[in-house]
Amino acid sequence: MLSYLTRWVSRGAFQALKGTSIRPQLVKTPHIGNQTLAAAPLPFTGGSPGVRQARALDQERLLQIDWDDGSCSLYPFTWLRDNCQCPHCTLQSAQARSLLFTNLDVHTGMDQVQLMDNKVSITWPDQHSSEFDPDWLKKRCFSSEARQALQEELFLNEREYWDSSLQIPTADFEEVLHDDKAALAWLEALRRIGIVYLRGAPAEQGQVARLSQRIGYLRLTFYGHMWQVQDKPMANNVAYTSGELSLHTDYPALHHPPGVQFLHCVCQADQGGESEVVDGFHMAEQLRREDPEAFNILSSLRVDFTDSGADYCDFSVQSKNHIIE
Amino acid sequence: MLSYLTRWVSRGAFQALKGTSIRPQLVKTPHIGNQTLAAAPLPFTGGSPGVRQARALDQERLLQIDWDDGSCSLYPFTWLRDNCQCPHCTLQSAQARSLLFTNLDVHTGMDQVQLMDNKVSITWPDQHSSEFDPDWLKKRCFSSEARQALQEELFLNEREYWDSSLQIPTADFEEVLHDDKAALAWLEALRRIGIVYLRGAPAEQGQVARLSQRIGYLRLTFYGHMWQVQDKPMANNVAYTSGELSLHTDYPALHHPPGVQFLHCVCQADQGGESEVVDGFHMAEQLRREDPEAFNILSSLRVDFTDSGADYCDFSVQSKNHIIE
Predict the structure, then answer these.
(1) How far apart are CA A31 and CA B256, in angstroms?
(2) How confident is the prediction for chain A on average, in pLDDT?
(3) Whether the Cβ atoms of residue A209 and residue A239 lie closer than 8 Å to each other
(4) What's the ipTM?
(5) Where is the TauD/TfdA-like domain (chains A, B) (predicted)?
(6) From the list B40, B243, B256, which residue is nearest A256 (CB)?
(7) Residue B35, min C-alpha distance to chain A (Å)
(8) Contact call for residues A3 and A265 (beta carbons, < 8 A)
(9) Of B230, B237, B236, B235, residue with least CA distance to B265
(10) Best residue in A153, A291, A308 for a mutation probing chain B (most B CBs within 10 Å)
(11) What 3-state DSSP class applies to A165?
(12) Chain B residues whose beta carbon lies within 8 Å of the beta carbon of residue A36
């Protein structure tokens, strides 16, 4: 079983999902979010230094925090007022702003700032007061290092581009289903490389649904939630023939093409049936180097994609997309 | 009942979907595609002039068609070979290319071109032959006029930006459900203006599902397919409180925010409960004129959006998006 992040480099070319007579199921899941893996809290940073001094730079409208370790951070008044964590300004249960924009004075000054109980306490000109935890502030310091660290914490940014020398990472299907660590390792490899080969799934339909339910939910398309890639009479898609397919990217006519697709080879063809995959990001990078003009055309010119027919429902979809996004 | 194309100008601001105590249902539908409306064939253009002469310009690798009306069209050899409509190169039932890229010679010449039975018949150097219908060719002429006409045929390109002087277009809910012309008029207004007010829906839950099934299918989100916007304890979203909301755009943390949302006011609040809507495109255009630097920042700088909690499923979503897209 293959799972991969479809890399939207080419919408019309590049990725081959099937050869001849292969009969995988395809399923799409729009994002990674589930019962046990995705909702984990952010890692605890802890160990932030204490605040030595906090003072308002009224001219610059910045709050300056001098930390015990000798470093210094600057926070705009407006940003602090906008990010007030009090129950009036932030709905704690949703972790969302409830302060109305109309009540935010973007030109606000600061009446007073003091350290109280190891918190930075601010009184605003309208006598509203805000309290900030030093850890919270330190983590949101505007230095490029702190911002980089926060991005690393929020996103899995590591990427590997690959060519034919790739050893496709593998994982055990049942382990991924039942062991959180195996599932996380699978997802991280999928994110980093874009393709993972899962072995050991039962050779029967329904396995991709089990896998997708493990990490999220399926996205409905006009071909349904999942479908059988097999030779069909009056095929409404070239994938439903036994003919060879060129490298391609799936669903270019969709406004939002799939992010992850699962293919399960339930019945291997006696002859043929090879699947070919290509790293579109790698090819795009290569093209950018070798033929910048071609890259520029393919990434700036929107072309028409169309898909029409009847499947899960009647459909007639028309879109304009870049070949390389 | 309001339905509108959410205009993704501001992901954090601009559009208000509810005021206080309003209890609409929200439903999202990702695209327009249904049993009766969307799969209509393209309008018949007809009446194309006949071909007076077809000749290969070997130097330029262009086919020149002189039409009976005195006009002239040029088609690149490679484009013609790529678009061969024969059963080997095009899967008719899918209206899709089955010609493999590896079998396409992008530097192809042309052995012969002739008019046969009012078709343009081409023989390629490998003796493969292609036949093109004059209507088909005329419609795909590369002149800017023909390309413009084709775009007008493929897309509903008309847009109206609006301010507070807008008279929100209205339609009758039951008519839209049962009359194709009314449904088409509703969708065209929705596309053009971005908001339509449907009257006459029964004041009970389930109406948005009926409406969405009329034109497509709902998109699943981690808040479910649809949800009740009402005051909830420990609200996981500011929309689930009775507090006033600032103008905003929904679901900025999603990779693919909704295109169309339906809100149904099932129970009007005794006091308050107003909904406010703003045309984000209009505001963005205004900002572009009045403060190009601000527009540039908001449309080029990606900011972090986050949404976490538990609803249809546990979720913890993080995204980077432009405020103005």
Answers:
(1) 10
(2) 84
(3) no
(4) 0.77
(5) 170-309
(6) B256
(7) 5
(8) no
(9) B230
(10) A308
(11) coil
(12) 314
- A207: amino acid identity, one letter: Q
pTM over 0.90: no
CB contact under 8 A, A310 and B39: yes
d(CA A260, CA A304) in angstroms, rounded, equals 23
Domain spanning A2-29+158-322, CATH architecture:
4-Layer Sandwich (3.60)
Distance CA A195, CA A6 (A): 8
Fold of B51-152: NE0471 N-terminal domain-like (3.30.2020)
Interchain pair B256, A94: CB under 8 A: no
Residues 6+ away with beta carbon under 8 Å from A110: A56, A58, A61, A63, A77, A80, A122, A123, A124, A125
Domain positions in chain A:
2-29+158-322, 51-152
pLDDT band at A38 (very low <50, low <70, confident <90, very high): very low
Most confident among A46-50, A55-59, A221-225 (mean pLDDT):
A55-59
Helix or strand run (H / E) with residue A4: strand A2-5
- Amino acid at the residue A240: Y
Q: Residue A114: pLDDT above 90? A: yes
Structure tokens at B261: 């949302």
| pLDDT, tens digit (0-9, with 9 covering 90-100), for A270-321 | 888 888 899 999 999 999 999 999 999 999 999 999 888 888 888 888 999 8
A75-81 long-range contacts (CB < 8 A, ≥24 apart) are A75/A137, A75/A140, A75/A142, A77/A108, A77/A109, A77/A110, A78/A104, A78/A106, A78/A107, A78/A108, A80/A110, A80/A122, A80/A130, A80/A132, A81/A105, A81/A108, A81/A124, A81/A130
